[in-house]
Amino acid sequence: MKLQPFFLILLFFKCNYFVEQSKIASMENLPKNLGKLQYATPEQLGMNGQFLKDSIEAIIMQGIEGKAFPGAQVLVAKGGYIVYHQAFGYHTYDKLQLLQQTDIYDLASVSKITTVLPALMKLYDEGKFDLEATLADYVPKLKKSNKADLQMRPILAHNARLQAWIAFWENTVDEKGEFQRRTFKTDSSRRYSVKVTPNLWLHRKYHKKMFEAIKESPLNENAGYKYSGLAFYLFPNIIEKLTKTDYEIYLKTEFYRPLEAHTLTFNPWRYYSLNQIVPTEIDTFFRKSVLHGYVHDEGAAMVGGVNGNAGLFGNAEDLAKLMQMYLNRGVYDNRRYISEATLKEFTRCQYCEEGNRRGLGFDKPLITYDANLSSTAKAASPDSFGHSGYTGTFVWADPKYDLLYIFLSNRVYPTRNNSVIYNLNIRPRIHEVIYESFLKENKN
Fold first, then answer.
1. What span, in angstroms and rounded, lies between the C-alpha atoms of 228 and 147?
2. What pLDDT, in 10s, does the model give residues 201-228?
3. Less Cβ around it within 10 Å: N or C end of the chain?
4. CB 289 within 8 Å of CB 274
5. For the chain, first and last CA: distance in Å?
């Protein structure tokens, strides 16, 4: 029997409806879910779904129309259930490719809490990593430097007087903007084996100059909070020495693969079609190409894209699996990865009395809320934690409300000289409406 087009269309929508419904948890008054993330309706978690949908969509569309970003992903989970996950807009402003929920973004500094941090917490559990140890204890080549006595705790809390960053790439070019000798070549060889872009290869030993630049960098004159990524260049080697395993392999073996978070990876160009990877920026000053599947951060690129400061890519749902494990105090799918005590220690404010809000690696809410300065909602609890990323990413977990919020965008496309995402306060405004969707509901 030949089906008429109308019935084919009806059948298509019915099939898709039942597929989507099969994702939705069927229980009412859902209990805390320590298994795999499941889908549920916002109402099943005490949230106003229509308010959530309409509010997030309005904010995102304002961002797209204002050219804060060409597209974005937003994911919200509560109690171990994904209650909202949508992709908006396009990969780029040419509007040739619609954004999909499975598409992969450069996570930028969100990498700090999704690469180095899980490894260090596990090693801390195993008694192999000591927060009171010094940098020289783990990096003997720093024994005669001004950083020898810096301890791990203040380093991870950005309280160790380290400089914010070093523009490593600037040392590779001369006054004319040309690459100096023994830095880059346009093709690979035994000596030039570090792939920075498809057509740019760095000298295999250049990382030693980067280490020397970190070693010789002065410390900030005054003690106190100063966000710094320098130590996160050193942590991958520390982790390799403590685990006797390649850093990337260790992360994938111990965390990403067991979590089934397969898109969490460095250098996604090795594993995924570029159609699934969102372009990050058109680099006009260093690599002079579209950064697509290759890490945006210049320093991370110069160590082959595998780093602790930046470099991790992933989609919202896979990132949610790792963050949900943190929110579950170290458990996911009934498997323990990190002890509850360790997660509490790393996610608590370390130097609040000194005005530093940070945990160990994790960002925290401002000690005194200021709407003009905060990246989070006012309602975010003091126990909450997360991190932002320069490329336009943001993750935040709140144990008090069992709430997870993930925002992914490429706000630096085509250029990083775009502050609209900040001017429109996009990420914290979405965070606010997430809290409003259930706090207002509960009041009513």
1. 14
2. 999 999 999 999 999 999 999 989 999 9
3. N
4. no
5. 54
